[in-house]
Design brief:
The protein is mainly alpha-helical. It is 77% helix and 3% strand. The longest helix has 34 residues.
């Protein structure tokens, strides 16, 4: 009987944000603008880092990978969200839903590990500047990136396998705008204790442990900066870290609140707001934060834009 009920659910229906057409039209304009700016901003950062020799350093290698990751992450959610804002039938097939779930979880897990690797990079740069280029070799940077993608992919596959095994008994209405893990678990009609345990375990491995690595890195970084006698030296050291720290707080904070925070008093609307923040808003904030706080990136972006305008004029 359970297997029969499982096969009935061939598609899911999203409730989305609102049933009011004018509200959805306004949200469409907002999210479309955010999505286009996300694509443009992160693409410009990738191009600037690739063509500007001044940005040939481990920090910018990680930043270009983070920008590429943000493009992929927001693309796994935003196009479908935009289409559903303009339609009354917000439907996704079962296999498409599981694919979206796997991709978004994989990319999210990759970002958390990558941010921890970037924190270690900043720790070496500030605390061991004379050995920085030796320690943060090209090979080690590539290994960090590959490790991030591997762990993220395993996270997505494991969570998706646990979710596919759930029975939904024909309850296919998801009070969300995407196939989000917690929203799917809420509508399952079978025991979800294994899913909750897997979320807790992966939350510790993918969120808490990298977050602890980041915190320890910045404890050493801040203590090293405070020992610098020159105020200009302290300011330069802080400027190389504040952009990354800001992004870390935004990414880890929203994810920990969503997956490891107390669930009793959190409504579905709050879940949607948090999901919008880490899947749509955060990817556009990364290029803004890095371009505003980093003089080298700002100069490289300005140069890339000028070259693009000149080429377009010709």
């Amino acid at each position: 009987m359970g297997q029969h009920n499982q096969t009935i659910t061939r598609e899911f229906v999203f409730l989305g944000f609102s049933r009011d057409r004018s509200t959805n039209a306004c949200l469409f304009v907002v999210f479309l603008s955010v999505y286009l700016f996300t694509l443009a901003g992160n693409t410009l950062i990738i191009i600037a880092i690739r063509v500007d020799p001044r940005l040939n350093a481990p920090m910018y290698f990680f930043l270009s990978n983070l920008s590429f990751l943000d493009i992929c992450y927001t693309t796994s959610v935003a196009p479908q969200l935009l289409v559903h804002l303009l339609t009354s039938h917000k439907i996704i097939c079962f296999h498409c839903c599981m694919t979206q779930l796997c991709v978004s979880l994989s990319l999210g897990g990759t970002e958390f590990i990558l941010l921890a690797a970037m924190a270690y990079d900043r720790y070496v740069a500030v605390c061991h500047p004379l050995h920085y280029m030796v320690v943060m070799s090209r090979r080690l940077c590539i290994q960090f990136v590959l490790l991030s993608w591997t762990i993220g992919f395993l996270n997505g596959v494991v969570q998706t396998v646990f979710t596919v095994r759930l029975h939904f008994c024909g309850f296919n209405i998801i009070n969300h705008f995407a196939c989000e893990l917690l929203a799917l678990i809420k509508i399952a009609c079978t025991d979800t204790s294994a899913n909750e345990i897997s979320i807790l375990v992966t939350g510790v491995l993918i969120l808490l442990i990298p977050c602890i690595v980041v915190m320890l890195s910045y404890v050493y970084i801040i203590s090293a900066i405070l020992r610098i006698r020159s105020s200009d030296g302290r300011q330069r050291a802080f400027s190389t870290c504040t952009s990354h720290l800001t992004v870390v707080i935004l990414c880890y904070g929203t994810a920990i609140f969503a997956y490891l925070g107390p669930k009793g008093n959190i409504s579905s609307n709050q879940d949607k707001i948090v999901a919008v923040f880490y899947s749509v808003i955060t990817p556009i904030l990364n290029p803004i934060i890095y371009s505003l706080r980093n003089k080298e990136v700002k100069a490289a972006l300005a140069k890339s834009v000028r070259n693009t305008i000149l080429l377009g004029g010709k």
